[in-house]
Amino acid sequence: IYPILPIDSSKLNLHIDTAIATMWVTVSMIENISCIDKRMYLVQNFETDFYDFSDPLKRKAQQSYDPRIPFTFLTVSKWCQKWLKDDFHQESLYIPNGIERNRFNTVNRNWNGKIRILIEGDCEVAHKNVDESFQIINQLDLNRFEIWYMSYNAKPKDWYHVDRFFHRIPYHEVPSIYKQCHILLKTSLLESFSYPPLEMMATGGCVVALANDGNIEYLKNEVNCLFYPEKNLQEAKNCIYKIIEDENLRNRLIENGIKCADERNWEEIEKDIMIAYQ
Predict the structure, then answer these.
(1) Residues forming beta bridges with residue 94, ordered by sequence position
(2) Is the separation of the CB atoms in 148 and 184 below 8 Å?
(3) The pTM is what?
(4) What is the C-alpha to C-alpha distance for residues 113 and 29, in angstroms, rounded to an integer?
(5) Which residue from 24, 185, 223, 274 could staple onto 64, CB 3.0 to 4.6 Å apart?
């Protein structure tokens, strides 16, 4: 168990061996605490892009990658590692993200009946690009499909076709939703590390996605997923039908997806993670 520092740490009366910032707003807080021996910054995304150019928080987020005092940088994504070095001259340690395979275990699907498509993401967040998912859904013969939508924050827009909506589902219930679906349709434009495709593959489902910096680290087109070009709704539709109709392709995607998830099992990578923090 690791203690979490409060935002207001002005009255701390203790000694801290190592403190880890986990979002840009916590960097300045850790900078200002004098009783810390070692400071680390776990960079999980390019958080500057969370804000519009008119928002002063954009500049503050940018400044966090060039702190006033030394930090050891860590990151969960190789694309983050690259821009940290190229744009901010920060060397960083790469610690891969993993998955709890015992919770996201593999189950067989029946592909002969109605196909259940899962869409995941906050439709009010522009870079999640959820609208495009439902634009694709509108191209399908919906007599053949059932559409499930899972979102922690926003609710479906009026024009979305949703057969079942899951809102603020507790994390321990999330694996069950993946296991009941055949295909994950994931259209995010920006992710640091995209978990939903890995979670779907772990359970034995298939993935149709847009390629982004947060998923190309482990998703490979025609190997463990099918990628389609942004805004090409027809090609996305074709990908969905190809998975259903081409059993050899489907079996290959499923087999390689399970293999990918096995390689990301926390039990396989936890030693390397602990070494990075030490």
Answers:
(1) 75
(2) no
(3) 0.86
(4) 54
(5) 24
